[in-house]
Amino acid sequence: MTNKETMKAVGLYKYLNIEHPDSLIDMELEKPVPTGRDILVRVKAISVNPVDTKVRAPKDKTEDSPKILGWDVAGVVEQTGPECTLFQPGDEVYYAGSITRPGGNSEFHLVDERIAGSKPASLDFAQAAALPLTAITAWEGLFDRMGVSRNKDANAGKSILIIGAAGGVGSIAVQLAKYAGLTVIGTASRPESAEWVKELGADYIIDHFQPFTAQLKDIGLPEADYIFCLNSTEQHWENMGEAVAPQGKICSIVETKESLNLNVLKNKSAAFMWEFMFTRAMFQTADMIEQHKLLNELAQLIDAGIIRTTLTERMEPINAANLKKAHATIEAGRTVGKVVLEHFQ
Asked: How far apart are CA 181 and CA 150, in angstroms?
């Protein structure tokens, strides 16, 4: 009987504060084998998102087997399951994966090929790893949930307010909204974040700590046709209700800690919807291959120079010590762009 192959990984057994020595642990695990439509990916780079810190956050729970986080991966296909048709060994891929399966903070990782895309040829693995989760979220929020047209002519004169525009999702949403021909108003509260959002193509910057309507009037846009909320839904709820245009649309990605009064939208016949990029993989929806398609389309936009990576900080190697630093940075709530780790050692 041969010994099973192992791989390096970073995981947890207990849900602890990031300062605790056991919050994230270096470990050796059995290397997985792909079945069905799974591909086995040799992980080259990973990115850290707020979802990682939320899953890891302290709670009264202990895992019997290691919990592996990480939902942003770029790597090379090592092996394919017997039902795979989209990729073959040697292909370079990028993806976010599924919240209901082990994450990508490991040397090798299984993912359903229908939610993986071909890595942009013009980017290295770290630059590509910065993109999937935030790009899928931004793309689905804009085009699938709010129904923003991809036709620039159809969006002439229309505007979008992006709350939290300097973060990971905001950094992509600004670019996609601009690509779609919308007038983009991004919120930022610090000079460095405002500068970043301007660089990405926002037409105007307003402060999310101040009432929106007065600031919009100051720039000659009394209301926004679309509002994309990427920060504290309840904190901005009344503000969004005032700022959204009649028959406008609001989409949020941030769960609320309290009930929302939907009546603030009634007189305007305004719509509210959620975006959760793990929905398709979590429920194995009939259209889950749409994430494969959008990642491939995004790669084309990147290689054409229309959309740029949002990588702002690189760390190496991929290990518990560096992942702890990245989690602490995210939890501080002042990130601009994305933090990426590359290379297992």
From this structure: 8
